[in-house]
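Honest question from a wet-lab person: if I give you the sequences of every part of a complex, can you actually get the arrangement of the whole thing, not just the pieces? Trying it with mine:
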Amino acid sequence: THQWRGLIEEYRDRLPVSAATPVVTLLEGGTPLVPAQVLSERTGCDVFLKVEGANPTGSFKDRGMTMAISKAKEAGAQAVICASTGNTSASAAAYAVRAGLVCAVLVPQGKIALGKMGQALVHGSRILQVDGNFDDCLTLARELSENYPVALVNSVNPVRIEGQKTAAFEIVDMLGDAPDIHVLPVGNAGNITAYWKGYREYAKDGLATRTPRMWGFQASGSAPIVDGAPVLKPQTIATAIRIGNPASWAFAEAARDESGGLIDKVTDRQILAAYRLLAAQEGVFVEPASAASVAGLLAKAEAGLVDAGQRIVCTVTGNGLKDPDWAVAGAPQPQVVPVNAQAAAQRLGLLD
Ligand code: F0G
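Yes, you can. This is the full assembly:
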């Protein structure tokens, strides 16, 4: 059989698992690395999209969660908890089902996309909306995990980073070497930390000749790393990265500095433009936060800061179906027609 076996089996020797670890998997990872024609033309580079929305619950979180839930199960946990802007909770809820664990979820009230809420609900997690932002949720989740019998599965749990680093392995395995630049959105900063770890491990072991420059992009209303101070009231339409005090802040700065990269910010307007470009011109439907990577790349290219001929990978972190409001917003309602081919052809513009 040729079915992808899930990232723990595929990269077992590079992960902290043993024969005693019960592998909890939905066969995550092995996601498409799609050549992006329009982005390549615009930048003069070879641009690829690492489409993480193709994971089982529709985001890259599944990479970390297969590890976090497997290790929680191995340690004998009965329950897990996470704070989330939506995707972590969707993933934790699904993997907890597979493991037979209780899943508790803390989300910022009114600030997570409907699709993600639906996932946490349908997978049977215990959800609380917290009267606060993501950073408040994480503080509360940490406190609960320290004082009650419940294991924390946020990316402050190092095994989450271990799982997520496999995306860098997959990219090098596909391309034959690391790209020149790797671009991704930054929220709590776990993912940029994980990719950097993955790239470094492959280079150290001779599986890549180099490491890429790491380019991270925050939303301008939620850009503590760029602004140099926590943001007390983070704002952005990209709710997944509406985070004012990232837990992996220092690791993200290390990834930036050690790789010769950068962390910058993009406006909601730039995010939405990239979101629409990806869908309308590349055929790839991502959620708004995911488009921050592409928005950042385009902004740098327009500023003349991207040399032609480079190989660039943008991670698009979550599926567009998670948060379809932005696809529908501002678009005209499709017209209603009778069951009549000529009328339909006319409205479709097929007669001229
Ligand atoms: N993109 C999406 C779609 C996300 O859901 C997240 C984070 C990020 C990017 C940023 O990744 O936090 O590792 O820097 N979502 C978390 C959650 C916070 O709760 O689902 P990061």
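Two things worth pointing out. The beta strands are 33-35, 46-51, 79-83, 102-108, 126-130, 151-152, 181-185, 213-219, 262-266, 311-316. Residues 59, 61, 84-88, 155, 185-191, 240-241, 287, 289-290, 317-318 surround F0G (CB under 6 Å).
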